[in-house]
Design a protein that fits this description.
Blueprint: E1 4-8, E2 11-14, H1 15-37, H2 43-67, H3 75-80, H4 89-105, H5 112-131, E3 157-161, E4 168-172, H6 174-197, E5 199-201, E6 204-209, H7 214-233, H8 248-272, H9 277-300, H10 307-330, E7 334-337
Length: about 350
């Protein structure tokens, strides 16, 4: 597969660069659309985009260099040789987070959480587009290989050719599943935003509201739950230098899921006047399901031939956690008649 789209004079234009540019444009437009639903001006979103682009590029390369330092002569090489190596989504997220904080500190928005409600779902469109660059590189493919000719096609698998030997393998098209997952997360968040922004019940207009940051937390919890499973399938995951068992992305995604549980639990307890049996039951179920996923992750790394049942169980468990978080979210909603 040719990673270079075309040449502009002496400059090589890579497919990954084209998809990253389209991802940025898609993220901005999606965020602006959500901002319009919030009845807010677009200035904060546009400034966030301008600030986040260089920051995300910088940190995505820094994190990638930290996890794959052996590919470079040094940190300066990682920050200047963009034709080599890759980018870390974790680093890009750090850049976006810092950009939103800067915009908030500049008093462009009254609520940082409200800005997150806008830009985080929008970023899912960017991820969905950016993942498609996997069509033109060997990155973001699965450890699972397909020998059955009927499965050696999209959307199941893509062909990876070893440039040294000329042999090819059909590997799981992880990047495509990740793209679809991000798109699903965006539409879930978009539905929630529209549903809770304003509804009409009979002749009475009822405003259904959630605490600022709720949509962002739903976005992070769904993305984290799905990505934990998909990341497990990848053969090129990034790991911390001190850890070779759980990938960096899996650790971050688990942290996002736990943060969402804490966020909604806090607001639910505050709104409903204390802890009740539903809270305890939800927490216990989340602990059991996350623990089950952790065990399956440990198991599948030692029994790769049982990947289908393992990833099925893991997917059901993590999606169930997301649905439990949705239930916590609904317990935080308030209505005021107008």
């Amino acid at each position: 597969m040719n990673q270079i789209a075309f040449f502009w004079g002496s400059i090589s234009i890579y497919w990954s660069s084209i998809f990253f540019a389209l991802a940025i444009i898609g993220s901005v437009f999606a965020s602006l659309q959500i901002r319009a639903i919030q009845n807010k001006t677009p200035n904060a979103v546009l400034l966030t985009a301008l600030i986040s682009i260089p920051l995300s590029l910088l940190f995505s390369r820094l994190v990638y260099w930290y996890c794959s330092f052996e590919q470079y002569r040094g940190i300066l090489d990682a920050l200047t040789s963009f034709g080599e190596g890759g980018h870390s989504l974790v680093g890009a997220a750090i850049g976006l987070f810092l950009a939103t904080v800067i915009v908030w500190r500049l008093n462009m928005v009254s609520s940082l959480m409200q800005l997150w409600d806008c830009v985080l779902p929008g970023s899912m469109i960017g991820i969905a587009i950016g993942r498609l660059s996997g069509f033109f590189s060997a990155d973001d493919k699965g450890k699972i290989m397909f020998d059955n000719p009927s499965l050696q096609r999209l959307p199941f698998a893509v062909e990876i050719v070893n440039e040294a030997t000329g042999t090819s393998d059909w590997r799981l098209a992880t990047f495509l599943f990740e793209s679809v997952a991000a798109l699903i997360v965006f539409f879930v968040c978009h539905y929630i935003i529209r549903s809770f922004h304003q509804t009409n019940l009979g002749k009475e207009k009822v405003i259904c509201s959630l605490p600022d940051g709720s949509v962002a937390m739903i976005c992070l919890s769904f993305f984290g739950s799905l990505q934990v499973v998909l990341e497990s399938t990848r053969y090129d995951s990034l790991f911390l230098r001190t850890n070779g068992f759980i990938s960096l992305m899996q650790m971050v995604c688990l942290a996002l899921v736990l943060t969402s549980i804490i966020f909604f639990s806090y607001h639910s307890i505050k709104i409903n006047g204390g802890v009740d049996r539903k809270h305890i039951f939800t927490w216990l179920l989340c602990v059991i399901l996350i623990g089950q996923s952790a065990y399956v992750e440990y198991y599948v790394q030692r029994h790769a031939n049982e990947y289908f049942i393992c990833y099925t169980v893991m997917s059901i468990a993590m999606i169930s956690v997301s649905l439990l978080i949705i239930q916590l979210c609904c317990s935080c909603s308030t209505r005021s008649e107008k």
